[in-house]
């Protein structure tokens, strides 16, 4: 997805925040924090990953399925790629 390059700084910042959230879960478990605290941290990570996934799916749709000028074959390929990812995501 070379088109992501235009937003790479924002995406990388988002991924780094998620990595920080995952590290907080690790610290929480290691410190024996109350389970409710750790659950909240895990829920936050899940939400952050979901938001990242939403952004990536939207970008893929715009660039590889709905962009003007794409051939029918390119649209079909973009849709097939997305279908594979979504099947894995929703397992």
UniProtKB/TrEMBL annotation:
UniProt entry keywords in alphabetical sequence: DNA-binding
Pfam families the record matches: Trns_repr_metal (PF02583)
Entry's Gene Ontology molecular function annotations: DNA binding
Coiled coil residues, start to end: none
Record InterPro entries: Metal_Tscrpt_repr (IPR003735), Metal_Tscrpt_repr_sf (IPR038390)
Superkingdom as given in the UniProt entry: Bacteria
Ligase found in the keyword field: no
CDD domains in the record: RcnR-FrmR-like_DUF156
Family: Belongs to the FrmR/RcnR family.
Name of protein: DNA-binding FrmR family transcriptional regulator
């Amino acid at each position: 997805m070379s088109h992501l390059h235009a937003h790479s700084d924002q995406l990388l910042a988002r991924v780094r925040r998620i990595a920080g959230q995952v590290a907080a879960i690790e610290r929480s478990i290691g410190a024996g924090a109350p389970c409710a605290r750790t659950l909240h941290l895990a829920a936050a990570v899940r939400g952050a990953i979901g938001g990242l996934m939403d952004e990536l799916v939207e970008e893929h749709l715009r660039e590889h399925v709905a962009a003007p000028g794409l051939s029918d074959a390119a649209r079909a390929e973009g849709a097939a790629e997305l279908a594979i990812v979504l099947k894995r995501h929703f397992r």
